[in-house]
Each structure stands twice: as C-alpha cells, then as structure tokens.
Design goal:
By secondary structure, this protein is of the alpha+beta class. The protein has 3 domains: 285 residues, no CATH class; 105 residues, no CATH class; 47 residues. Helices cover 33% and strands 21% of the residues. The chain is built from 13 helices and 15 strands. Helix 4 links the parallel strand 12 and strand 13. Helix 3 packs antiparallel against helix 4, helix 5 crosses helix 6 and helix 8 packs parallel to helix 10. The chain is elongated and about 95 Å long. The mean pLDDT is 89.
C-alpha cells in the first residue's frame, strides 16, 4: 500500500528501549535472562496507587478491573528480595548511569542538574511492586537523519519489566530474571514524516546505543514503540515489535486502519495498541497519563557525575575522525565503526602495514570471498595472517589468497606464499625485461604477478620495473 503521508498530515515519534549489560539497576543480581525451570514461585495481587496529584491513572484502573492475580517464577542464584519487593532498592548502578549519560551526550541532550527517581504505576503484573522505577536524565536533544533534525524530547533510565510466560483469564505468569535490568528509554519528538524515515531514525539511535559498548545484544534486548497520528485522528501508541524491518509495514497498516475509521465517520481513539505478527494492531489499553507518576522515597536524589562525558564522541564524529586520521573512505570508516572494530588497536599491532590495507582486508575481503567462493570468514578470527604480513614473512598481496584458502576449509600454507627476497625479485625482473624487450611495463607487471602472485609485493615490483626498464 502507498499513502501520501504529507497530505495525510502524518506525525510520528518513536520510543527506543535498550537493555544494558552488567548488574541490575538497584541490586547486584546479574542481567542474565533465563527460561529454564524456576527454583521458586510467588503469587501476588496488585492494585493501582494514586499519582503525585492524588489521581489514579486510567490505564492502571483498566488493568485493575481485570481482577487478575500474578505468578512470578524466580531463580535462587540470580534473583534477590529487591526484585520480589521484599527489600528496599540498593544504591543505583553507576555503570548503567554513566552509559545513559554517554548516550545523552551523543544525542545532544541537556542533562538534568539533579536526578529524581520516580515510581510509574504499572499493575499489569510486569512489576512485582506495582510500579516501575524511572528517572529523567536528558531533555531537548536531537539527532540528524538525512540532513534533518529529529528532536529527542526525553532520555530516561528505568527498570526493565518481568518477562511474560503465560496468560490465562484469571492470572498471568511472569519470569523474574529480566526484572530490574537497566533500560534506556529514548523518546523523539513527532518530527518523523514517513514510515521509511521512522525506520532510519530507529536504526541510527540503535547505532548510537551500541557505540557505548554497554548494551545487551540479541533478540528482545532492544524494542521500539511508535506514536503516530493523522489529520482528524488521535495519537495512538503501538507496542510490541523488535524488528526494524516491521516498522514500515506496521505504520502503513495502522494508517490504513485510522483512515477507514475516519471515512466511516467513526472516532479514532487515543489508546495503546499492540503490533501483531501480521503487522496489524489490536487494542491493548487506554493511553496512560501523568497520574501514574510519583516520587520514589527509598532513593535520594542524585547529582550526575559528568567528568569525562564531554569527551565522548558521537557515531558521526568517530567516522569522520577515523576517515581523516587514516585516510580511509567514508564508507570504510562507517563500516568499521558500525561493526565496533577497534581499528586503532589493529593499526598499532600491524604498524608496518598501511591502515588502508588493513581496513580493506578486514571489511572488503570477506565480501569478495563471499561473492567469489560463497564462503564466510571473519578476518578478526585469523589475524595471524596479517601478523605474518606485518613481519614480512609473506607479502601483503598474499593475505587475501590465504584468507580465501582458509574460508574454503584449507589449512593456511604460509610456505607457499613465503616472500621472495629483494635480490631474487630484482634478478627475476631483470630476466623478465631481457626476455620481453618490447613489452610495456604494465604487460611485464601482469606477467610477473601471474607467475608469482602472493609471493611478491606489487608496489616494490613496480618500483623495480621502472628502475630497470629503459
């Protein structure tokens, strides 16, 4: 399907939720997510609490009316009483706080002077306490996508919720292992003007998050929510999808749903909807409001420590610096940064090789091997080949040939590619010139490389050809 999103008055913002590695936010339990048989279970009922202004949130009331009870599955070796809400929260995980401060800097946010931990009422069972701890870290940031500024309204650090195991009419079953994992929440302004742009914004934020080196990886560790509206409709929040590739289709289908309602003179309700596997959406709950927030009294306010944060580089800055310092193309530098390769370490380790050559081998050699031989190889697992070239045991021109051999399951035969001694190479070139007096330099180079590919350095060979070809 295809819509003119400008004509529809389409507005869209995106929320990104990213789990962090290490310890949990308010205890020392590991951030290990388990799915095996639990060591114990606990049963609870939850009720809605009034917010700071004495009102109860409508989304919380909606959940309370279901009258469900909740069964929590836990593990003796990775869960503690903090997660069961039987013990006050411990001091905040400073490693997680520093990671979110780094992200705030990369997203050009103004960092708050004082961090106040808040309780957000959540009684769908996903939190044993009936609330989620959350705190505002940064505001009024932005990122650039296709030379357009997308506002970052808020950046928060909060606790991850429990993981649903089973739903029944009278009860839900949750797993405790995910509860309390540090979670970064990033909310953009409604500046996104098309489904494709939403996908690009989510991808760029994901890259920025990964650049901290603090994020968990794998399915379920990063999630996206979409807030969208069209002219004559209402803001709808869509939850429940993790794959960037689904963003475009989900927005298309939700736009079509709202258009059909408006064309039938029906009202588009402001609500939270769930993304289904077929890219349609279904009602989840009413849109929550400010009534669900109130201060956390067990944790004092925190003054953020910003020392060293100002020196953190954004993804774009890293790419530009890498390209400039090592004379790499923008595309090569971009792939190195995106793949989180410690390129400076490689350049130091293989100081006798040209940085451009190292980058080309690490990034482009696997692509060429895949295209030519239909085989995959991770060059970073075979750095001994680069080490041989760096020690001049083999010429640089042999590196690709050896990697191709390895990718095809062959043991690397370094002796086969042992570099030709300088005097031997010079003797070979003089003989070649004498046997082919009329041949131009390029033709001689071709003959030389065909005979000794992988054993001689092309640059050195050309220098000697020019020296002796009169």
């Amino acid at each position: 399907m295809s819509f003119d999103y400008n004509e529809l008055g389409f507005k869209c913002g995106i929320e990104i939720h990213q789990q962090l590695e290490g310890k949990k936010l308010f205890c020392h339990c590991p951030t290990e997510i388990r799915k095996d048989n639990p060591g114990f279970t606990v049963t609870r009922r939850l009720r809605a609490s009034a917010g700071e202004e004495g009102k109860v949130d409508q989304a919380a009331l909606h959940e309370q009316k279901k009258q469900k009870y909740f069964i929590y599955q836990g593990y003796d070796d990775i869960n503690c009483e903090v997660e069961l809400d039987e013990e006050p929260p411990h001091p905040m995980n400073q490693q997680a706080l520093r990671a979110v401060l780094m992200v705030a800097k990369m997203l050009n946010c103004t960092i708050v002077d004082e961090i106040q931990v808040m309780r957000k009422t959540v009684i769908d069972g996903s939190n044993t306490s009936g609330f989620q701890r959350t705190m505002l870290i940064g505001v009024d940031g932005f990122l650039e996508v296709n030379q357009k500024k997308i506002r970052i309204d808020t950046l928060c650090l909060e606790e991850e919720a429990c993981q649903i195991v089973d739903r029944a009419k009278e009860y839900d079953v949750y797993n405790l292992s995910r509860l309390g994992i540090p979670l970064i929440e990033i909310a953009t302004g409604p500046d996104i003007s098309s489904p494709e742009e939403a996908k690009e914004v989510a991808a760029k934020i994901g890259m920025i998050l990964r650049s901290t080196g603090a994020c968990k990886r794998g399915i379920g560790t990063i999630r996206q929510d979409i807030n969208l509206s069209i002219k004559g409709g209402a803001r709808v929040e869509i939850k429940g999808f993790q794959d960037l590739r689904s963003i475009v289709k989900i927005i298309d289908y939700e736009t079509e749903r709202q258009l059909k309602l408006l064309q039938a003179d029906k009202k588009v309700e402001q609500e939270v909807r769930k993304a289904e596997d077929d890219f349609t959406t279904s009602f989840l709950r009413p849109m929550p409001g400010a009534d669900r927030m109130y201060p956390e009294t067990d944790i004092p306010t925190i003054i953020p420590e910003l020392e060293g944060i100002a020196s953190i580089k954004t993804i774009d800055e890293k790419i530009k610096e890498l390209a400039s310092d090592f004379k790499l193309s923008h595309e090569l530098a971009k792939e190195i940064v995106e793949q989180e390769i410690d390129f400076i370490k490689l350049v130091r380790e293989f100081a006798k090789l040209q940085p451009r050559f190292i980058a080309d081998i690490v990034i482009n050699a696997p692509k060429e091997i895949k295209a030519r031989f239909k085989k995959d190889i991770d060059v970073l697992e075979h750095l001994d080949v680069l080490a041989r070239a760096n020690k001049n045991d083999i010429p640089a021109s042999a590196v690709f040939e050896l990697l191709a051999n390895i990718a095809q399951g062959e043991a690397p035969d370094f002796d086969k590619y042992k570099g030709m001694a300088d005097d031997e190479l010079e003797h070979e070139i003089k003989k070649l010139i004498n046997d082919n007096k009329e041949a131009p330099i390029n033709a001689l180079m071709g003959l030389l490389m065909a005979k000794h590919r992988g054993r001689i350095d092309g640059k050195k060979a050309m220098e000697l050809l020019r020296k002796h070809k009169k």
